[in-house]
Design the sequence.
């Protein structure tokens, strides 16, 4: 099929929320727009997502979806799809019921679902909706693809692995940690403050290190519902002087450039964008061996993988990197090279566009 497509990204995340999935959406939408397609981003009115989409020159539409079953929004979105002649709807699993039904009501729109994290609950419901309402599924790791195939939800043609992409360079200067913490090595974490990210285990690990590694300081960038609990837990463990909770940071790249070690102790993951960005900055990374992390760090020459839920493993990995400059520098160089060879935005957009066009051709029977 030749020519451009009209594509709607539907994503009803909370107004104040913005994370890896939302960053992927905007990169994908902007990249497809630059390829000549007409792009719309649908989400909650007044949301950070729509604000950032507008800043990138993307057209937006407000859909305040609050439940899986909303006839009003089904017909509202269906009307939008008809009016704008939407060829392809790309949505997330939580919006599939409303968005998928709207696409079916509207006509011959191709429906693709993007799933960036392992499914944690409601599998039977989700698999039912996928079979009935979706024409394809995009994920960012082989482990999630294999999960769906093993469950018999979809064959290899239905699920497509498209790795997240990053922009390899920017002109941000490195954050000067040394000015604030002279003589310290900085261990950085950047993530939502949510149970998934395993930050209580990180605090436990700092407790194990506090007596023999006083030259370490830990920075946590991000916001979330666990902010207060994590600060209180650090106080309880007696490590509040070694850890700084900086809250939300708009541009994390200077912090990644300025830190000595990046760590993400997640309990489960998709493809962790923050870790990928740290690797692109030449930082050595410590990741838990879960899901997409194993594809981002395929062997010990690129980074360090440790078991999840293991404070001793976290402490051991940090201590090893902090005490071995040659190892730290080598892993950082290898990490940067590996990411820039395999995880660029250009590669992501090319794969996404090809998959969308293939699915559209199948839908139209051409």
Sequence:
């Amino acid at each position: 099929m030749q020519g451009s497509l009209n594509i709607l990204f539907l994503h009803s995340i909370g107004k104040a929320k913005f994370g890896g999935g939302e960053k992927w959406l905007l990169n994908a939408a902007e990249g497809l727009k630059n390829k000549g397609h007409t792009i719309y981003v649908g989400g909650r009115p007044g949301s950070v997502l729509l604000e950032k989409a507008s800043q990138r020159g993307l057209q937006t539409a407000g859909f305040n979806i609050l439940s899986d079953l909303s006839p009003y929004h089904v017909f509202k979105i269906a009307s939008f799809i008809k009016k704008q002649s939407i060829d392809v709807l790309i949505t997330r699993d939580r919006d599939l019921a409303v968005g998928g039904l709207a696409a079916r009501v509207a006509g011959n729109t191709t429906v693709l679902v993007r799933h960036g994290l392992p499914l944690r609950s409601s599998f039977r419901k989700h698999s039912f909706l996928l079979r009935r309402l979706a024409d394809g599924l995009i994920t960012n790791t082989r482990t999630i693809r294999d999960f769906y195939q093993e469950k018999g939800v979809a064959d290899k043609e239905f699920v497509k692995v498209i790795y997240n992409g990053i922009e390899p360079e920017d002109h941000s200067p490195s954050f000067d940690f040394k000015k604030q913490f002279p003589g310290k090595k900085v261990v950085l974490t950047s993530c939502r403050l949510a149970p998934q990210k395993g930050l209580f285990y990180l605090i436990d690990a700092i407790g194990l290190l506090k007596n023999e590694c006083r030259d370490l300081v830990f920075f946590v960038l991000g916001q979330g519902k666990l902010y207060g609990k994590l600060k209180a837990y650090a106080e309880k463990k007696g490590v509040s002087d070694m850890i700084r909770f900086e809250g939300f940071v708009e541009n994390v790249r200077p912090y990644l450039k300025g830190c000595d070690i990046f760590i993400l102790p997640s309990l489960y993951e998709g493809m962790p964008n923050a870790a990928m960005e740290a690797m692109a900055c030449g930082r050595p990374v410590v990741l838990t061996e879960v899901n997409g992390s194993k594809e981002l760090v395929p062997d010990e020459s690129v980074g360090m993988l440790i078991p999840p839920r293991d404070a001793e493993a976290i402490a051991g990995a940090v201590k090893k990197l902090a005490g071995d400059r040659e190892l730290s520098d080598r892993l950082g160089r290898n990490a940067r090279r590996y990411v820039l060879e395999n995880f660029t935005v250009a590669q992501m957009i090319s794969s996404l566009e090809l998959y969308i066009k293939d699915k559209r051709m199948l839908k139209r029977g051409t």
